[in-house]
Design brief:
Elements: E1 6-12, H1 19-29, E2 35-41, H2 48-56, E3 62-66, H3 73-81, E4 88-91, H4 103-112, E5 118-122, H5 135-148, E6 164-167, H6 168-174, H7 185-192, E7 199-203, H8 218-233, H9 239-264, H10 269-292, H11 301-333, H12 338-359
Parallel strand pairs: 1-2, 1-4, 2-3, 5-7
Antiparallel strand pairs: 4-6, 5-6
Helix pairs in contact: 9-10, 10-11, 11-12
Length: 362
């Protein structure tokens, strides 16, 4: 048996048509290397994991991790990278947009220079390219790259690249510091390392996707900003709390709008307040489920109902705490209402956040 040289981690979500194509492409590209491929699937509805397992039964180089109840490209890559004994670990998209024929040269570069930590596939060095991207995507990618420079001290051309090869020992060193949020695993690794990592960039041309659909959407764009925030300030105020609070503020507007509307329609104040409160809590529950806790999202009528009930229960106690703290401070300070009100809101928000993260999305 030749010793295992290289693990190729392939994050996949709804890529059943691409899995066999990628295995064949890897087989052709990696003739002289002992490799394994680890498909990390997030329980894709299209049965991607079944397709990968069917291949794995005949080919021991193929492995499958099926994560159930979790979503996220970066966290899937981290999980795959930690699941191998190979000294070198590559990450490559499962949709054949990255150029697998670059892998042997990436491995050769790491073997030739023991001081090198990783090799990055770049679309923006001479010989690379973004293929058939429209002007809109080029502009968005350029903006994301510019933003990344605020957290990145290293000078590299393509920090947005999701195609790279790294030493397993380097991965294990940085994993405890990774945020695992969103799409940008490479940026996460580069900014997490305590000392700057030594890297080289090799050019490749980003191919157009032939089979399946991209998962990049507006929420992924938002997650990118969240990941940057997390890197810059996450240790001071956790990113989930910031999102939770922002959504809470939007909920207050929903509350006021509903209350105003109901009063306008002739409802009594108590009844209108109850309805407005439930409307605001419901709004907050769904938005938090969709954004703040996207990686642990509750799905299906049963889970959603249970989650909604527990969220409303938590928030009701939070509201009592809010009123209690505000009333107490108002008594003590006499007259000035803004500070007691804000203190009440802050205590309520922290309570709601702490308890709902434990009981609703725990
Ligand atoms: N396990 C898992 N979980 N895999 C996912 C998820 C997820 O939540 N979301 C996406 N993937 C997989 C896809 O199935 C695909 O194999 C790969 O991750 C890339 O996703 P795409 O949806 O095809 O992304 P893209 O083509 O827009 O973005 C790629 O290009 C960027 C360069 O602009 C990604 O590779 C980025 O990492 C890369 O930087
Ligand atoms: Mn893609």
């Amino acid at each position: 048996m030749t010793p295992l040289d290289l693990a190729i981690v392939v994050p996949v979500f709804n890529e059943r048509g691409n899995v066999p194509l990628l295995v064949a492409a890897l087989d052709a590209a990696l003739a002289s290397i002992a490799w394994e491929a680890i498909f990390v699937d997030d329980d894709s509805p299209d049965g991607t994991a079944d397709v990968a397992r069917a291949i794995a039964r005949h080919d021991p180089r193929i492995r499958v991790i099926q994560r159930i109840g979790r979503r996220g490209l970066s966290s899937a890559c981290i999980e795959g990278m930690c699941a191998t004994a190979a000294p070198l670990v590559a990450v490559i998209d499962g949709d054949l947009q990255h150029d697998e024929t670059l892998l042997p040269r990436m491995a050769a570069a790491l073997t030739a220079d023991p001081a090198l930590d990783l090799v990055i596939g770049s679309r923006f060095v001479a010989g690379g390219g973004t293929g058939a991207w429209d002007a809109d995507r080029v502009a968005k990618s350029a903006l994301a790259t510019r933003l990344s420079r605020r957290v990145l001290k290293a000078d590299l051309s393509d920090p947005m690249s999701g195609f790279f090869m790294i030493r397993g020992e380097v991965v294990r060193r940085v994993v405890p510091r990774l945020s695992g949020i969103g799409f940008k695993i490479l940026l996460d690794i580069l900014t997490a390392a305590p000392q700057p990592l030594k890297f080289v960039e090799l050019p490749y041309v980003f191919r157009t996707r032939a089979v399946g659909e991209s998962k990049l959407d507006h929420v992924v764009a938002l997650e990118y900003l969240i990941a940057l925030y997390d890197r810059m300030f996450g240790r001071v105020v956790p990113v989930r709390f910031v999102m939770f609070s922002a959504i809470g503020a939007a909920g207050a507007i929903v509350h006021l709008a509903a209350l105003g509307l109901l009063l306008e329609l002739g409802a009594g104040f108590i009844a209108a307040t109850i309805v407005a409160t439930v409307a605001a809590m419901t709004f907050n529950f769904f938005l938090n489920n969709h954004l703040t806790y996207r990686d642990r999202r509750l799905r299906g009528p049963r889970a959603l109902l249970d989650g909604w009930v527990s969220f409303c229960a938590v928030c009701s106690v939070g509201a009592v705490a809010n009123v209690g703290v505000a009333a107490f401070l108002y008594d003590v300070r006499g007259g000035a209402w803004a500070l007691p009100a804000l203190a009440g809101i802050a205590v309520g928000a922290v309570w709601n956040f702490a308890l709902s993260s434990r009981f609703t999305w725990g």
